[in-house]
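During the no-cost extension, the postdoctoral fellow (Dr. R.K.) reprocessed legacy sequence entries with the updated structure-token encoder. One reprocessed record is reproduced below for audit purposes.
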Amino acid sequence: MAYTFTLIKSKSDCDSLISIAEQMKDDLGFRKLSLERQIKAATSTTISVETELLSVNAEIEALTNIIAGLPDGETKDETVFKKKKLEYKAMILNERKDNYGAVSLVDKEFDIGCIEKQVEECDSFIEAVTAHKNTL
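Re-encoded structure tokens follow.
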């Protein structure tokens, strides 16, 4: 990108711009590291959450069929209660899947790609400011 360095007339202004860009670059590096750690954690969690969710959904389906054939009474009530607990567990797993699932994983990878482009632009900006500073 072309910057309007003709407006910058002093080396101290250049130093300020370089300092701002370096701070931004450091912040981006920290954000990237954080996302990389989240990806590492999400990768292992994603598989276990999706597997457990499949299992819970299968149990819910089986209990639904069992409940339909049970006569009213204590056994049916206990089975309905067990099904409700499993439905709650499935809801929690779906929330975890949203936070650590495959979509979330790819979204984090996209964020890292964007950060890498921003770091490249910071480097280009610092080079351009330094070159302008050398002309003053």
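Helices lie at 11-69, 74-100, 102-135. The two ends are 21 Å apart (CA to CA). The remaining legacy entries will be reprocessed before the final report is submitted.
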